[in-house]
């Protein structure tokens, strides 16, 4: 049996679990940066299992470099748009992700962005740190009243979207949502109203994105969709950057098409559109939605459990769905 390749050092507990697999580990030696393409191709050669992150593009070239002994690609993320799932399956390689364990942390982050952006918290903090004279005034940093009637539109009501809906219900928000689960009994219990995307965009004070990145959702939120939103609306994205046309978003923020945005993910991550940093009406986070200590430990541990199961001749604990879309060829995340 070949080695297990890890494209990045995981949390301490997850690394301890990996060391208990009883299989040699090859770990990319830079804890802060992903492997280059050349390092990835070299590291996977002869591997029985790959433990990868969303920063690693795993396509046919990588799978072939690993060789015939490769049994599983375990992605330490709920998303898997960085993996060519069809190419893996055609080679008999299982693909797993880490659903469920990051729902609450990701929903916390989405709601934190919602509040920070709608109430202009970060903008006000930046102002106060300038040392400029100030005095309380009735129009100072006025933002959106979130609780007690603001409308939240959730695009893609999956596990994380449902966790956001629970938080919104506690704030007595009106909740609209797209997706098959929007019509479920669980959604109804939190007052979710299933609607189409156009109505959601037109009626929502805050639009929060929770759909996976697929060929169908690439640039789902483009200039036309932004124009369909209220000029007072806030856009929150903790899903994948390419769900939004970032250039169109910058133009919309600059021109008052929408009021503000809270972003944790970016179209050409880790690069940002050059217009984002200069805007006061956007809150920017470096992809930290799942960055709770216990959550990151659980994500790594689940990836290792998937590897352990497959190397033992079983199926992965959390395989990606049979209907999973493959990553778009050559797309860097």
UniProtKB/TrEMBL annotation:
Q: Which PANTHER family match?
A: 2-HYDROXYACID DEHYDROGENASE-RELATED, GLYOXYLATE REDUCTASE 1
PROSITE patterns, alphabetized: D_2_HYDROXYACID_DH_2, D_2_HYDROXYACID_DH_3
Organismal lineage: Bacteria, Bacillati, Actinomycetota, Actinomycetes, Geodermatophilales
Kindly state which keywords UniProt assigns to this record, in alphabetical order.
NAD, Oxidoreductase
User: Which Gene Ontology cellular component terms are annotated?
Assistant: cytosol
User: Can you give the residue ranges of the D-isomer specific 2-hydroxyacid dehydrogenase catalytic domain?
Assistant: 6-320
- Could you tell me the superkingdom of the organism this chain comes from? Bacteria
Could you tell me which SUPFAM superfamilies the record lists for this protein? Formate/glycerate dehydrogenase catalytic domain-like, NAD(P)-binding Rossmann-fold domains
Q: Spell out the protein name for this chain.
A: Lactate dehydrogenase
Show the segment(s) annotated as Disordered.
Answer: 313-333
| Record carries keyword Chaperone | no
In its UniProt entry, the species of origin is given as Blastococcus haudaquaticus
- Which InterPro entries does this entry report, sorted A to Z? D-isomer_2-hydroxyacid_DH, D-isomer_2_OHA_DH_cat_dom, D-isomer_DH_CS, D-isomer_DH_NAD-bd, NAD(P)-bd_dom_sf
Where do the D-isomer specific 2-hydroxyacid dehydrogenase NAD-binding domain residues begin and end?
Answer: 111-289
What GO molecular function annotations does the UniProt record carry, in alphabetical order? glyoxylate reductase (NADPH) activity; hydroxypyruvate reductase [NAD(P)H] activity; NAD binding
The record's comment on protein family reads:
Belongs to the D-isomer specific 2-hydroxyacid dehydrogenase family.
């Amino acid at each position: 049996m070949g080695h297990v390749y890890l494209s990045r050092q995981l949390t301490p507990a997850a690394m301890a679990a990996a060391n208990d697999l009883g299989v040699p580990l090859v770990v990319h030696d830079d804890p802060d940066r992903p492997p280059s393409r050349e390092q990835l191709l070299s590291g996977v050669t002869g591997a029985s299992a790959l433990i990868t992150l969303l920063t690693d593009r795993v396509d046919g070239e990588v799978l072939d470099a690993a060789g015939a002994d490769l049994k599983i690609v375990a992605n330490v993320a709920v998303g898997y748009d960085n993996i060519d799932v069809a190419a893996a399956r055609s080679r008999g390689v299982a693909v797993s992700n880490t659903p469920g364990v990051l729902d609450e942390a990701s929903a916390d982050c989405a709601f934190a962005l919602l509040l920070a952006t709608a109430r202009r918290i970060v903008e006000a903090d930046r102002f106060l740190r300038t040392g400029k004279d100030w005095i309380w005034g009735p129009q100072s940093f006025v933002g959106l009243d979130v609780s007690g009637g603001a409308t939240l539109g959730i695009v893609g009501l999956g596990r994380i979207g449902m966790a956001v809906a629970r938080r919104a219900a506690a704030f007595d928000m009106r909740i609209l949502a797209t997706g098959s689960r929007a019509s479920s009994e669980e959604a109804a219990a939190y007052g979710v109203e299933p609607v189409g995307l156009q109505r959601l965009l037109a009626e929502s004070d805050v639009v929060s994105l929770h759909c996976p990145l697929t060929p169908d959702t690439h640039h789902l939120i483009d200039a036309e969709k932004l124009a369909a939103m209220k000029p007072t609306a806030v856009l929150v994205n903790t899903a994948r950057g390419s769900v939004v046309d970032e250039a169109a978003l910058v133009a919309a923020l600059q021109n008052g098409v929408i009021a503000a945005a809270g972003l944790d993910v970016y179209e050409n991550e880790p690069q940002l559109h050059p217009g984002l940093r200069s805007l006061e009406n956007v809150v920017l986070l470096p992809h930290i939605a799942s960055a709770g200590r216990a959550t990151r430990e659980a994500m790594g541990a689940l990836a290792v459990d998937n590897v352990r199961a497959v190397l033992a001749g079983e199926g992965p604990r959390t395989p990606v769905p049979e209907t999973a879309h493959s990553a778009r060829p050559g797309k860097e995340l």
